[in-house]
Amino acid sequence: MLTIDYDRLDLRPGMRVLDLGCGEGRHAFEAYRRGGDVVAVDWGRHEVETTKHWLGAIEKAGEAPDGARYEVVRGDLTALPFPDASVDRVIASEVLEHIPDDATAFAEIARVLKPGGRMAVTVPRYGPERICWALSDAYHANEGGHIRIYRSDVLRTRLTAAGLTPGASHHAHALHAPFWWLKCAVGVDTDNAAVRAYHRLLVWDLTKRPWLTRTAERVLDPLIGKSLVVYADKPARERPLAAAGTTDAERTAAAR
């Protein structure tokens, strides 16, 4: 289940890609299949081992093109173990809402991106997430759980403050929002027949990709899509400061 649009990310073969907070690797898998030089990063030991296992399986099955590479490392998003300006693309999907010092995480992403590089960040969308929080404390108030809900303007402000330029955005996973509302309403750890039935629907949609559910999600994403996705670029070069004594016309030209 992918949240980002790889065409908007403009991921091309040979690009070095970081999948930060990779979880069990879903975005890293797609980046690897597209020929990326992928580094998947997560703090969880289980997540690192699972992602490494499945990337190896993709390699053995011949599902990645020649030249594609992968690495899986355990790392902290507020202190990334990579040099400045060393990666072409960054994916940070459903992870920043877990990090207390998100400003440092954004700054680290900007640091490791090359000038002209691009990132895709996804977070739970404000409206659907607020409903989940209202229905259930257990949904978010646990170790490693969600500690904040981002509004779109706040997320864009965080990106801008880190020196990135926010661009296109969209929403994803509308069919998942009612599932989580239902799950939160009956209890996130409760074995409930309605929750099981809805989960079977989501699995069917994921595996079969039927026209009916795919069309429904495209229509509903702008309204109740559970995830917000924003793409942002690192400027290719810093704009020069105008020297003292220059004219307004010269300052305008320098800023272009």
From TrEMBL:
Which InterPro entries does the record cross-reference, listed alphabetically?
Erg6_SMT_methyltransf, Methyltransf_11, SAM-dependent_MTases_sf
GO:BP terms for this protein?
methylation
Which residues belong to any copy of the Methyltransferase type domain?
A: 18-120
Q: Which keywords does this Swiss-Prot/TrEMBL entry list?
A: Methyltransferase, Transferase
Pfam families tied to this protein: Methyltransf_11 (PF08241)
What top-level branch of life does the organism fall under?
Answer: Bacteria
- Methyltransferase found in the keyword field: yes
Cite a single GO MF annotation.
Answer: S-adenosylmethionine-dependent methyltransferase activity
Please state what the protein is called. SAM-dependent methyltransferase
Organism (species): Petropleomorpha daqingensis
